[in-house]
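Customer escalation, tier 2.

The customer says the design service returned an amino acid string that "doesn't look like it belongs to this structure." They asked us to rerun it and document both sides in this ticket. The original structure tokens are below, unchanged.
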């Protein structure tokens, strides 16, 4: 993958925090860059790729979308949440996880494209 195609992001932002692996897929990164271009302000990535060996993934019955390089947790809260979800939705994102409780520094939105690649249902959930 050519990271130069995604000028607002660096590979390191998406590296697995426990293994350092990074297998982000171009179709997700193209979408995220398009969202960023429209958003017009920085998008901070909390979690990108996760190795199947990551402790969060090992605790699941089956690997999550992060292990396929088609998901990201984005640090966002407050008034920006609804606008960001609406923007993502306009780009075809149909899967959202919301963590909006607790300290502002731990609030995020998960987005993924599992419905496009793996026939996962469109859904919204909270943590």
């Amino acid at each position: 993958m050519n990271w130069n195609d995604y000028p607002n992001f660096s590979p390191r932002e998406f590296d697995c925090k426990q293994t350092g692996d990074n297998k982000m897929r171009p179709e997700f990164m193209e979408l995220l860059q398009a969202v960023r271009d429209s958003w017009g302000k920085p998008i901070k990535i909390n979690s990108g790729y996760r190795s199947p060996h990551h402790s969060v993934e090992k605790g699941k019955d089956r690997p999550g979308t992060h292990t396929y390089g088609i998901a990201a947790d984005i640090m966002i809260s407050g008034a920006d949440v609804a606008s960001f979800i609406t923007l993502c939705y306009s780009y075809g994102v149909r899967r959202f996880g919301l963590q909006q409780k607790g300290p502002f520094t731990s609030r995020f939105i998960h987005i993924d494209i599992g419905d496009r690649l793996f026939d996962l249902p469109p859904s919204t959930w909270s943590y």
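Tier 2 assessment: The sequence is consistent with the input. Residues 26-39 form the longest helix (14 residues). The chain has a mean pLDDT of 95. Sent an explanation to the customer and offered a walkthrough call.
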